[in-house]
């Protein structure tokens, strides 16, 4: 929804999320030596719900959690948690754009 990304976002759903994921991958190179034993997978979600190319990763993660917990709803719970985080962040951004009507001192 940012003015700087409107033209790119209009061409394809998820393109801005993919750009954000690529930026995250570039940033992680700084910490490469401390992350030798971990896999870094950036997750980016656009405000209107388009996921980055990591949708397969999130689906597989939900499947693995389901296998461990034996609860078939775990994948749905994972997507719901991500959606709630996006909504909460959007509410913070909206709140920060409002001008407080404080009484004059």
Structure explained in plain terms:
This protein has 105 residues and is an all-alpha fold. The chain has one domain. 56% of the residues lie in helices and 0% in strands. The chain has helices at residues 6-11, 15-28, 55-69, 74-97. α3 (55-69) packs across α4. The protein is extended and about 60 Å long. The mean pLDDT is 75. The N and C termini lie far apart (37 Å). The longest helix is centred in the last third of the chain and has 24 residues, at 74-97.
Set out the fold topology:
Blueprint lengths: L5 H6 L3 H14 L26 H15 L4 H24 L8
Helix pairs in contact: 3-4
Short summary of the structure?
The protein has 4 helices and no strands.
The low-pLDDT segments are none
Q: Average pLDDT, to the nearest integer? A: 75
Summed up, the helix count is 4
E-strand count: 0
The first-to-last residue Cα distance is 37 Å
Backbone shape: extended
Instruction: Give a short account of the largest sheet.
Output: none
**Helix vs. strand class:** mainly alpha
Give, in order, the helices and strands: HHHH
Radius of gyration: 18 Å
Strand content: under 5%
**What count of domains describes the coordinates?**
1
As a percent range, the share of helical residues equals 55-70%
